[in-house]
Amino acid sequence: MKRWLLYVLLLTGLTGCFGDEHSDLKEWMVEQSKGLRGKIEPLPEAKVYIAFPYEAFEIADPFRTSKMELAKKTNGSGLAPNMNRVKEVLENYDLEKLRMVGTLQQGAAVQALIRAPDGNLYRVKQGSYMGQNFGMVAKVSETEITLKEIVEDSGGDWVERTTVLGLDDAEQKK
């Protein structure tokens, strides 16, 4: 008996699915799909690859160091740093990390006191070298040091530039 009851309930539930309650929707779908046909656009035509011949073998390669090495050996202006001299201690530091903290004077000779990043004080005078750009001290005054640096430009030529290292602000207030 339980089986019959289960069959009756199942058939009653299925009869609700076969009704014509959505017949208007089904008719509309049929009307709308009458003229439709799928269309696939053709693939675009592939462009033919044209090889570009590289003909710049005669032009100087900007990534080769041979031009800079040649410029170091034979500079047209004759300006080049002395690579054979013994480097001084202050040439191991960037000029921005060196601080002028005072001066000493003996007669007419003025020497500047430089504090290096290692915390030590060094004396420099006219003719001393400091900084990593072959900077030679050209003049020492009570408030600044004037340096002549020799730097390499983008073309591999050595050029001279003047740099000034001033007395540290904290030391000037003392």
TrEMBL record:
Name of the protein in its database record: Pilus assembly protein PilP
Organism: Deefgea piscis
InterPro entries: PilP
Family annotation (PROSITE patterns): PROKAR_LIPOPROTEIN
One Pfam family cited in the UniProt record for this chain: PilP
